[in-house]
Amino acid sequence: MNKSLTILIITIAFITEITGQGMWHDYGLDIRSYEFGKEVRVDSLKKIILNGGINSPLGQYSKAVKYLYYKHRDTESQFLLDNLNTKIDTTLPYFERYSQWDKYYTDAYILGLLGDRSAISKMDTVAQSTSHVKKEAITKLAEAGFFNYYDFVKDYYLNTTNQKKFINGIYVFSLYGRDSRYTNEVRSILEQKARAQTNWRDIDAYASYIGNFDYQLYVKILNDHFENSQGKERYDCFFHLGRIDGDGQPERTIFALQNEINDSIRAEYIPYFSSIKNYHLETNRYLEPKFINSLSKLSFDTTSSTYKKKKYFLNVFEPPVPDSTFPNLEMLDTLTSYTNQCYGYEWLKDEAYKNELLNKITNAKDNLTAGDSIGCRTEVEAFQNSINQVYQDSAGSYQKYVSEEGYKFLYYYAGYILDRLPEETFPPNDRDVKVKAQNEK
After folding, report:
1. I want to staple 306 with a disulfide (CB 3.0 to 4.6 A). Which of 156, 267, 295, 328 is the partner?
2. What is the torsional sign of CA 419, 422, 424, 425?
């Protein structure tokens, strides 16, 4: 056994002991392909395994091993570890060796899923052979991070004409992109193939494999096609990008709104607020001040579908409600960020007023850090009341100003914070004192 393989086995053994995970991808079990049925007895499976599949139909041994692993591994893992020990007899005729290699590969595959360190050396034995499962073994080794058959893999991928073999070949070829020795060449070959295609589906057929080792490039290739196409082709590409890079969609939406000429298609780029808030089908980044500002500045014919959908979205949007685990102190940091952004977008005017608001947030943070949740609440309530009053009074040349966008981000988000903080309780005859204190704030 060579030195690099020994090091790899030790490393993988350590990882599997820590994580409890198998060494390679688990493809699961398709029960429909097992002719001995769903109610097969465990002792019958064990008998097939112990007999090495002798006197059983071809392939029955491998099926018995996989069935026992997938259906009974909670109780039979040790049996599998102790008894998956097929040997290869090179003196046997080809047909019998074919069956032996199939069983030997199955042993290695299942032992790897069980985290047994001997699986790597067994799989490497298959990879070095000329058997029908050589390519499958090389694939498993690549999934485990062992890349020692590049020339074979490259030739298999570049020279196969069979569609099924091509798909298998491009997959393992892309895995070799994870090894720094081959990254540049694998990336170059697959990127060239992807960029030579003319529609997003064919581009994705190649680029998605680049995602196995360079996800950013995968997204960029599709994004480039999105920017350089039109109409339905662009929108379909955009929709697919939403699956693989949802957080990049707001920028793509603005790009499409500026460049798409078909109004009905263009309107589709603006999401529905309910799909973000209620169904979580779109990224919350659509509710960031940056996107709202960019969208509000775009002009469209007032009779267009795009204009109507833009207007509706801006009317109904709200800042996203943080997850319940999001710390209160970080929510106050977000409120600080929103205040600065609102001032930057001129949704909040007068620098002195901005600083006044920021001071209230600072006081709220100081109180919260000191363990004074009531004091924190008092400051946030004062912040919220101030925003509400200035928004109601924002007209003409009034120096302090809060726009509708600013009101939503600052008033609503302050409310989210208040929902987290305890309210101070007053005796009945002290309620007027509280009201007076709030008014003075």
Report:
1. 267
2. positive
Q: Of 146, 204, 156, 208, which is closest to residue 178 (Cα–Cα)?
A: 146
Backbone angles phi, psi at 27, to 5 degrees: -85, -5
What's the distance, CA 419 to chain centroid? Answer: 30
Q: Which residue has the higher pLDDT, 397 or 383?
A: 383
- For residue 360, give the nearest of 334, 386, 337, 328 by alpha carbon: 386
Task: Round to whole Å and give the CA distance between 55 and 66.
Answer: 19
Task: Quote the pTM value.
Answer: 0.87
Structure tokens at 186: 């694998």
| Residue 348 bridge partners (DSSP) | 402
Percent of the chain beyond pLDDT 70?
89
CA distance 15 to 426: 58
CA distance 64 to 70: 10
Minimum mean pLDDT among 51-60, 111-120, 285-294: which range? Answer: 51-60
CB 343 within 8 A of CB 355: no
Q: Using one digit for the tens of pLDDT, what is the confidence trace for 12-32?
A: 444 444 334 689 999 888 766
Q: How many residues does the chain have?
A: 441
